[in-house]
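Troubleshooting log. The previous structure file for this entry was overwritten by mistake, so regenerating from the original sequence record. Sequence copied from the archived sheet and checked twice against the printout by T.R.
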Amino acid sequence: MGSREEIVAAAAKVMREQGYAHATTKVIAQTAGYSEAMLYKHFRDKTDLFLSVMGEELPSLGATLAELTADPGRAPLRANLARVARLGLAFYAEGFPIAVSVFSSRELLRSHRERLGEHGPHVLLGGVATYLRAEQALGRVEAGTDVEAAAALLLGACFQQAFLATFHEREPADLADRLADTLLAAL
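Regenerated output below.
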């Protein structure tokens, strides 16, 4: 593992323990065993590091959605929905402790939102809706289905379970199959 990967892994650890708002680049670099200068050799700022943690250290929901959208008919619709739900539950459960502190102040949230821009949380929601549109094109999701609402229901349930699991300091309930079955009945 190279210095960049070690810094990302250390950032994930520190951000999980302290939250994004309280994790400093100095502590992250020390945890990785490097200087802050080395950290800044690889990352422009803490937000850049946050994006790397979210993209590299958490379950790859975005890549899975791109894969499913490119070839939606490869597996049964139920299996695909359960896969998205399972990854959504894992992604939010692992990401919630990292990202929740962004909401600790309006200024931090505003600057974080501005810096994230096109990489914000809406990307995953749009990815699920795009995947469901691909399923509509195959006729596996009814033409009149509101795919944005269906995507919000699926990811919203995953997010809620992650919140509850984080609050109660436990693993999220494995609801992926039940979420897929319930959503499938509505599609």
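The chain has two domains: 1-45, 58-186. Archived copy saved in two places this time.
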